Amino acid sequence: MPLIVMCGYPCSGKTQRAEELKKYFEQETDRKVHVIGDGALGIERNTVYADSQKEKNARAALKAAVERKVNKDDIVILDSLNYIKGYRYELYCLIKHTQTPHCLVYCLTSAEVSSTWNTSRDATERYTQEILDALVLRFEAPDSRNRWDSPLFTILTDDTLPFEAISDAIFKRKAPPPNQSTQSQPLSSSNFLHELDKITQDVLMAILNAQKTSVPGDLISVPGTTEKIELTRSFNMAELRKLRRQFISYTKMHPTENIGHISNMFVQYLNKSLH
User: CA 40 to CA 42: how far, in whole Å?
Assistant: First the structure.
């Protein structure tokens, strides 16, 4: 069932709004409501948000928890900062794969208000001012023109949540269509695994070779595909091999009928995963 993604500065009222939504849907529907957030996973904010690797692991844990709970019957609310555009896109890809609608609730406050609310918290629940300032600085505000940030509900401090509009957004909208790379199709070629291994390896080599003469911002053409790799930065062999293994594992379970689509599917997957 639908995913509601909370978003906003630290101490912007996200948890309170998530609880208001939970109460509303439990009263108005017979569905279970799962709230997944930093607190539920025991994430120690000042430790995690001070270390990029720990923060990355925390985001992965939150995403995995969402993936476990999303089903055809329940409502899932992700109560976390969700301040990175690329991470919100990953969540969008998740709901495309599971074929369920979603929406984004953006708790909009000023940095000053968030800082004031932070100081009024119990000492064990506060962000340090340094961490709070850094998170505000890194915050990537949602934009309703992006499909992964839409439908977007921007909530100011004194606003009442538009419960009916949010309900309509997650119950009366169709789920976004899956990408070609996430569609399950029957395996029809005995040579499939060999071709999967060879094609994905060829794509990696094409990327590594093209990087030698490219700069960030370039679009890399990959032979045998109609897609292009977005070179946002320099990609190393280790991370490309890791993504290749993940893609192969997934594709073995969801093989495509047309081997000619594999290269395009892999490039789509890389563009989604490399930020």
Answer: 6
The label of the residue with tokens 């996200």 reads 14
User: Does the global pTM surpass 0.90?
Assistant: no
- Token duo for residue 40: 């539920």
d(CA 25, CA 170) in angstroms, rounded, equals 11
DSSP per residue, 234-247: PPPHHHHHHHHHHH
Neighbours of 36 (CB within 10 A): 22
Residue where the block lists tokens 């990953």:
90
Burial class of residue 190 (count of CB atoms within 10 Å of its CB; 0-12, 13-18, 19+): exposed
Rounded distance between C-alpha atoms, residue 11 and residue 38, angstroms: 13
Q: Is the dihedral of CA 71, 72, 73, 77 positive or negative?
A: positive
pLDDT in tens, 181-236: 444 444 444 467 778 888 888 889 888 888 888 888 888 888 778 888 888 888 88
